[in-house]
Amino acid sequence: MAISLRQFNSSTDSSEPLKIDDEAVKTYMEMSPRELEHAIQQAVYARDVADPNAFVTVFDENGRLCRHYDDGRVEYVLI
Fold this sequence. Notes:
Structural class: alpha+beta
Largest sheet: 3 strands, antiparallel
Strand content: 15-25%
Number of helices: 2
Distance between the termini: 54 Å
Number of strands: 3
Shape: extended
Mean pLDDT: 76
Radius of gyration: 21 Å
Helix content: 25-40%
């Protein structure tokens, strides 16, 4: 059963109506090189690292150098 967004909003008692963003989120494959670089820069700037030294540097299964952080992140080291 399909329901329109307008019908859903009128049938709920929520004070905030459900909205759909005008700009859909792009995947990295849909971004231009400039957009991708900007998204990466914002992600690096916005990341919250409690302890920047909380990582172990290892080689992955393909021989690439990477850092395994305590919070589960993996960051590849480009040399």
